[in-house]
Amino acid sequence: MSTVSTRMDKRTLQQNARRVLEPLVALLASLRVAPLLVSLFGVAFSLWGAVMVARGALLAGGVFLLIAGLCDVLDGDLARRSGRASAFGAFIDSTLDRVGEFLYFGGILLYVMRRPNGYDLWEPVVVLVALMGSVLTSYARARAEGLGVACKVGIMERPERIALLVIGLFAGHRFLMAVMILLAASSLFTVVQRVRHVHRSAEDAPR
Among this protein's residues, is 93 annotated catalytic? Predict the structure, then answer.
């Protein structure tokens, strides 16, 4: 029951966000802006934000990540509104999303290891585990759907990861490290949830 409620809450939040952004999507569609261009802008903002984070400008990095996340919402809605939605578009969008995540986690890793006062060994390890959990979460869903199993389950999907990263970057080093621990634990837990979901679905499917 709680899982169903959580999905409904997520869906409601997503619908509200899309409703707020609808005028911007309509404007972009009227200007005939290509959805791929919006996706590429998202990667560009992620790259610049990651550079800012690596240099220690966490607040600026958080702002750029927020803009990149906005691009991630806009490109899909724009594709559907302008009639350009396609299987390849969904593929390239998902691929570019992974690029953006790698950039940001890489920026955070460099930031941790370049701090003037040094760093504790656990900090880069936690960042790497969080990155691994993020990648595995996306891979598990993609692999499951490649097998014909819908796999939109788990507590830590991409929107939640982006929101936590933005909050952590805005709040400063200590809170950012706490966010990394939370992301590492919750992402790996999400992978376990998806593995269990696919296992149950595979058992129920006809052989």
Answer: no
- Please report, in tens digits, the pLDDT of each residue of the chain (207 residues total): 445 555 556 667 667 767 777 888 888 888 888 889 999 999 999 999 999 999 999 999 999 999 998 898 888 888 888 888 888 888 888 899 899 999 999 999 999 999 888 888 899 999 999 999 999 998 998 888 888 888 888 888 888 889 999 999 999 998 999 999 999 999 999 999 999 999 888 776 655
From 166, 180, 165, select the one nearest 132 (Cα to Cα): 180
User: CATH for 2-204?
Assistant: 1.20.120.1760
What are the tokens at 118?
């040094």
Q: Which residues of 48-68 are buried (b: 16+ CB within 10 A; e: fewer)?
A: bbbbbbbeebbebbbbbbbbb
Query: Is the whole model's pTM more than 0.70, yes or no?
Result: yes
Active-site residue, selected from the candidate residues 93, 97, 120, 204: 97
